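Re: the 407-residue chain
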Amino acid sequence: MSTNTINQKNILYVSITRRARIGAVSGLVGGFAIFFVIFIIDFHLGLIPGTFYKMVGFPMGLEGISATLFGMVSHMVTAALIGAVFCACSRLHQKLELSNTNKGIFAGGTTGIVVYFIFFIPITLLVIEPLIEQGTQNDLGLIATISNIESVHLIQNMTLIVLGALIIHVLFGVIMGLTATLSMEQETKTPYFYKGKTLTAITLVIIVSTISMGIFYGIVANHTPPAVQQNELAEELSRIRTGLTYAKLIDMSEDDRLAILIQMSTHSRDLVLNEAKKFDKTIDEDINQIAYNMKSPDDLKFLQSAQISGIKGNDAQGKASIVSNGYMTYLRLEEFAVTSGIDQHIYLTKFGDIANGMDVGKLKANKGSQNYQISGINSNEYNQMVVYSKPFDMYYASASLAKMGSN
């Protein structure tokens, strides 16, 4: 009788409980491998670490690091459950037995595909995506792109996420199946005392490693000290163009600056935006500039008005008003302040839709009262003011303009 035959017979005597434990650990191994791969992809693409995992956290009402950590924990728990069921089911029939590595790899890969089509696709397309979309809609049911920018980006990239997830599920299954098969083989060779110790040690290592990576990428990597960011920014800019500095980038025209920004990774753009936050510009334009040369004080009328609020991590405050002096119309920002950025423009839109909005002009300053002449624009067609940077696809502030006297 061959050694393989003996091993196959011995493996059949491993209890379902024991198999479930081996499977759970194998699932954690596969889950950690995928966890690591996803963060490597994020790093090389210059994305915020853990962006993929936020897809799970957003429908739960979580944001930022909380959404990322929730997604990471859910991923690892699910991986362990899949592994436990996978390995326990291998005892149900001799043909399902993990008798060699090739069979384990095939069975694991097949399981990954089954999990993808039976669970991932329905849950993602029928539950998670609708919940994310619901979180980006206003009371009228229209997509308000300013309300949850990260959610909108996930929706826009859902096709890429779904296709990429298939590869990730297959890779997870292959690693899980291989690990489970090798562990099952060791059951016939290793004393029971050491088996328990090994499984416990592997589990603890994976849990500690996952927590460590989560803390590093989710907290440390997103809160790099300013001095380190400055040096990194200087290196990124000089890599794109020799001698290029932040000051030179700001002095460029918008078109020339856009040509540079297109060459940057998402991470490099984030560094530029973080640098921009340090520089405030203040202006103080009096409302009398609007009322100048009016025939009668009664000609000054406030047509629409709203409080200004920040969007997704950006601070903003003040009041936006549409004001008429009888022969010209103005958009006025009073006691205004917003997070400083680059190429910030003011738009009048319908429910925050920039594509069909009207560009009022470049923001004069990120602090202080200011006036914008909009006589050529029918303000009645728009109900939301937005501060937006097109080169960075970054929303900074918004105000839902209501007609004066309306509820």
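The first strand starts at residue 301 and ends at 307.
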